[in-house]
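Note to self: keep these together.
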Amino acid sequence: MKNILSIIDTFTSTEFSGNPAAVYHMKEDKTQFWMQKFAAEMNLSETAFLKKKNR
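Structure:
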């Protein structure tokens, strides 16, 4: 599985409006420092990190 980065419009049902947010789909754990640097690189007000939960 490749790393996936999505930029989504939040708080709206209309494309290209609302607040943009980055969503990074993680396939491995990253450090808090790495995630903070990544979020700064995205330069958006919100960045979320998703990781599939192991059962």
